[in-house]
Design goal:
alpha+beta
């Protein structure tokens, strides 16, 4: 992983956390152990932007990765949106 990717991802997550007031966007609205989760996975072309980051607590993040919480994604990039 390059340092550019690390910086871009860290910045996107930080901005998303500010946007959400450091609270989980999912079930619990917890403010403990907050993470950033890519809505459209990086490996599938998801960008390192706040718009592509879901702010989640560790518990909900683990549930997302376990498939117990489903996050519906869409390709939000301007070139892909139908206007």
């Amino acid at each position: 992983m390059s340092s550019t990717r690390n910086h871009a991802h860290a910045r996107a997550i930080a901005l998303a956390k500010i946007r959400e007031g450091y609270r989980c966007e999912l079930r619990c609205e917890s403010d403990i152990d907050i993470h950033g989760h890519h809505i459209l996975d990086y490996s599938l072309g998801g960008e390192a932007t706040p718009e592509n980051i879901l702010v989640v607590c560790k518990t909900c993040h683990d549930l997302v990765h376990a498939g117990e919480i489903i996050v519906h994604s869409f390709d939000y990039r301007p070139a892909k949106l139908e206007l």
